[in-house]
Amino acid sequence: MSGVRKAYGDVVALDGVDLRVAAGELVAVVGPSGCGKSTLLSLVCGLEPADAGTVEAPAAALMPQRDGLLPWLSALDNAALALRVAGASKAAAREAAHAHFVRFGLEGFEKARPATLSGGMRQRVAFLRTLLAGRPLLCLDEPFGALDALTRTQAQTWLAEALAREPRTVLLVTHDVEEAVLLADRVVLLSQRPGRVVSVLDVPLARPRARTEQAVVELRERALAALGVAE
Ligand SMILES: Nc1ncnc2c1ncn2[C@@H]1O[C@H](COP(=O)(O)OP(=O)(O)OP(=O)(O)O)[C@@H](O)[C@H]1O
Questions:
Q1: Judgement on whether residues 42 and 144 belong to the same structural domain of the protein
Q2: What is the pLDDT of residues 16-31, one digit of tens each?
Q3: Are residues 48 and 76 in the same domain?
Q4: What value of ipTM does the predicted structure carry?
Q5: Is any atom of ligand 1 closer than 6 Å to the C-beta of 17?
Q6: Which of 17, 46, 114, 199 is the most exposed, having the fewest neighbouring CB atoms within 10 Å of its CB?
């Protein structure tokens, strides 16, 4: 996207935003609450138009901030939902989704309703649904925002492993600088609303990365400094 502006009435959410994501790249967008991160994803996914500037994106699958699972459907049917929407039969969609259940740590929970799953499991079902949509670009909106610290750490490791197995182009929105540095190839830092790109950091580090790694700590500090956040 280039020169993108989006306002809701008098509230300017994004202004003059340029962002490029190369195929196979994981780009994290980090910024303070309300700076327009979710808006940016909805523009990329074509859910709403920009007021100015251009947005060019391949077909994208969105994993929304809340997991978006349907409470009345089983874990398997929730995971299979994108395939059903795309026209697959119930049996074919279930079979395709089930093929991933062991690797996603969901085996034995096929019939469980979302309310009976842990937060981490719900996120994995939601991520599987996003992955199965078969779109070239995955847009993940604060995928771990609702998880406690320990589960969040496990989920980050798990996501890095899942993407190493099945590489995709990913746009990840988070307010957590450390999460961005642990997962992304590039970190785009947005200002307070209206969101503008204040800095872009390359993260040329092999995965998996440890939060205690010197290079991770240094990049995290650089990102926080660029955001104007003192620790
Ligand atoms: N549909 C809408 N109608 C009116 N205002 C909106 C709408 N969507 C977003 N906004 C406003 O635009 C601004 C940016 O919102 P957005 O949700 O994109 O920010 P965010 O960075 O994702 O926030 P958070 O980190 O809290 O999720 C906010 O002030 C929000 O209230």
A1: yes
A2: 999 999 999 999 999 9
A3: no
A4: 0.96
A5: no
A6: 46
